[in-house]
Design a protein that fits this description.
about 350 residues; mainly alpha; MetI-like fold; disordered N terminus
Length: about 350
């Protein structure tokens, strides 16, 4: 039986149609059609990246452009990684990325399952589009709105008074509940002490490796805006799963929870990978939401590399340091995007 299956699979692969390469004339025509786009990409993408990298090695200043190379050559990058603020920015990026992606994927997937399970009710476009409305807003608008929501004096803290929570605390002789939210500079769940047992030098690190409290509201705001997009991605993936497969599982006695857990969610793995890559790209480049909502935050608790680059280049007159930081962020994004694109290409070829 196993031999029959193996031979059938081999026969299917042998008879599968191969992708046609086209005649030499057709290949030359295709090349000439693509040539203008290739030239534009070489100039406006790779050319500009090359110039940016060169500036990061030079003595360039905004008021006095200087093409001479800095000596020692890579001292700018050494200064960048020894910069305490940039180290904090890298920590903030990692923390924000983990919080943002985790919450956005879980919320988006939950919304998609709710809509898919209640297809009759959510068949009306208005209900589906309601979850997509935040995605249509600009990050600036979202940042301003959520800055008011998390304002310690006029935002969400007022509900603690309205609901009588602070009155109960006062009756017990306890201070009122007024979290600082975006104004709290503290870092929780620091792992420096734990790392010092393995890396003794970690005890002397100037950057606390933990979760800045002020960055949590920023991750919540980003999740609110992008969860609708994640939901739409998952709903699109669910449409590719045949209804016959679900009906067969129901006939076998599977509950709806089991169908989603063992059939639908595992089948959405490619969608999940695509969603994570897209959200990683967003989180690494995020600027306007953070800039409008908190800025650099208390003690740089919400500072991001994009804000660091902006201030170094346009406020600090340090083009070489700002461009060096942008090259570092480009490499970090490339470490994620390139393997993803290669895996997608291998999937198409197979």
């Amino acid at each position: 039986m196993e031999n029959t299956r193996a031979s059938s699979a081999s026969a299917a692969l042998a008879t599968a149609p191969r992708r046609k390469r086209g005649t030499p004339v057709e290949q030359r025509q295709s090349f000439f059609f693509l040539l203008p786009s290739l030239i534009a990409i070489l100039i406006f993408v790779y050319g500009f990246i090359s110039v940016t990298f060169y500036i990061s090695l030079s003595n360039w200043r905004s008021a006095a452009p200087n093409w001479t190379l800095h000596t020692p050559l890579f001292e700018i990058y050494a200064d960048l990684f020894s910069n305490t603020r940039f180290q904090i920015d890298l920590r903030n990026t990692v923390v924000f990325t983990l919080l943002f992606i985790t919450m956005a994927v879980l919320l988006g997937l939950s919304l998609a399952i709710i809509i898919d399970y209640n297809r009759r009710w959510f068949a009306i476009p208005f209900f589906r589009n309601t979850f997509l409305f935040p995605y249509a807003l600009s990050f600036i608008v979202t940042g301003v709105a959520w800055r008011w929501i998390f304002n310690p004096e006029t935002g969400i803290n007022l509900f603690f008074d309205i609901l009588g929570i602070n009155s109960l605390l006062a009756a017990q002789g306890m201070p009122p509940l007024k979290p600082g939210w975006t104004t709290d500079p503290s870092v929780v769940l620091s792992i420096n002490n734990a790392l010092s047992a393995v890396i003794p030098a970690a005890a002397d690190w100037r950057v606390q490796l933990g979760i800045p409290v002020a960055i949590i509201p920023v991750a919540i705001a980003a999740t609110w805006q992008l969860s609708g997009f994640v939901m739409a991605m998952y709903l699109g993936g669910m449409t590719t799963i045949s209804m016959e497969l679900r009906e067969a599982a129901r006939i076998d006695g599977a509950t709806e929870w089991q169908i989603y857990r063992y059939i639908i969610i595992p089948s959405l793995a490619p969608v999940t990978i695509s969603v994570i890559v897209i959200l990683l790209h967003v989180s690494f480049k995020i600027f306007d939401l953070v800039f409008a909502m908190t800025g650099t935050g208390p003690a740089f608790a919400t500072d991001m590399p994009s804000i660091f680059i902006f201030e170094q280049m346009f406020k600090g007159n340090k083009y070489n340091l700002g461009t060096a930081a942008s090259i570092v962020m480009l490499l970090l994004v490339a470490l994620i995007i390139i393997p993803y694109l290669r895996s997608q290409r291998r999937g198409e070829d197979s």
